[in-house]
């Protein structure tokens, strides 16, 4: 029986845990939250932080695992690569994965290889930042956080100090990047894909949705398929393939964030070296039939896995339940007027839990998996979600 070590046991790791169990693999999970739902499904659980590379390495070595997997978790991806490299398991090198995990390294890589990328610079101290001059607006971000946590758009120098402090509070390495603000044309493009040994085997693009009423930089949904034309999708796919090929990464499951400007230039804002959170792989499976959790598991064990996307005339999305205010969570209600089908739900909070305003993905109440017969119905829902979903917060 092959053993797989899965880093994390949240709702987002449940699909890879379930698939691994169905295949007869012995599943070991670890993180520092023993109450996470995935640990109830695994064969063994260990209270070891997924960001503690040496502790996870000791665990994997002692258990003699055959594969290690970070799925839907940015912080765990470098750890999985580190352990795989040290133990000679299937995977990519720590340095190559880190290139895609830390924003300042990613921006430098893009610039050095002739990709379109915002002007940027990284900082460890506010004094260093304040000694530079920037053309505003700029974006201030932690180099190593996920889910848009710690991100601020800054319109003038007087707001830099607060934005820097905010970003620093979300950075594990206490490291911040400032970058030129790019005026986007059309939707922010997201999705997941897989790059095999030498080419892009699969990618699925969706259109990101935000709640402008609380924070325009935190995704609260994604709609599939994307509205961008096939010619633009091909252009983006070519850029993704070129970037991953240049990096040397192989058999890579990835999550993406892409922007287009008014000239049609492609900005690869992020290629995360792991599948996306917020149940994006499950939405893509509902839409295309491609089982990204299965692909990630088999790649981590060095097994081949075939891809057979299907045509689909329906439309699919996830919606992140969230609150626009701090308070006590009571419940959510999906009204009878909802114009689609509820394919699944993950609610992370229970009645009486504290909830914060949706300033980052860490304040997500839950995820709804949605299906629509008509794009117009999907667009209607996302234009006015409050008319179809009530969040009860006191």
From TrEMBL:
Annotated Pfam families: ATP-grasp_4 (PF13535)
SUPFAM superfamilies for this protein: Glutathione synthetase ATP-binding domain-like, PreATP-grasp domain
Domain of life per record: Bacteria
Residue ranges of the TM segments: none
ATP-grasp domain mapped to chain residues: 107-301
GO molecular function, one term: ATP binding
Keywords from the named record: ATP-binding, Ligase, Nucleotide-binding
Protein name: ATP-grasp domain-containing protein
Organism encoding this protein: Jilunia laotingensis
Lineage: Bacteria, Pseudomonadati, Bacteroidota, Bacteroidia, Bacteroidales
